[in-house]
User: Fold this.
Amino acid sequence: MTGEYGRETDLPASAGAAGAFDLERFFPYRLSVLANTVTRALAALYQAEHDLSIAEWRLLAIVARFGPISANGVCDRSAMDKVRVSRAVRRAVQRGFVHRAVDPRDRRRSRLTLTPAGRAIHDRIAALARDREAQILATLAPDEVDRLHDIISRLQTQAGAYGAADAALDTD
Assistant:
């Protein structure tokens, strides 16, 4: 049987008790599937041509926008875990895309900046990313795109508030 999103399902649409958990309408699930689908489509463009992982591209994008920035800052801005960011930083430094220097204000930390080679790779991939984003968002009217950005910002703020509240509970 075909489900709501055109995928094959193992259960008939009527399966389950009334009020049962409907995964296909569960917002976090749908958002995750959408994000993964878009990420994979874009990753296919830059992995083949530039041999960059998703984490490495995210690192370059964040350092380009917010650098100089610490690895912890990259974690905060990307929601990637420290191990993934550390591996991406190590590989980007080895490939000459990112420069790591000791932070003069806190010698325990490093500041990350793009090298000229990193900037060139970033700029090429950013152009591809903008084109792909435009293709995906072309299904929406301009006012819908504006509303979508507003909705995402509000949901991010709300989710962040819950994350902060949950973290505060963990310390008790």
User: Anything to note?
Assistant: The chain has a mean pLDDT of 85. The beta strands are 98-103, 106-114. The helical segments are 27-50, 54-66, 71-78, 82-94, 116-137, 142-170. The first strand starts at residue 98 and ends at 103.
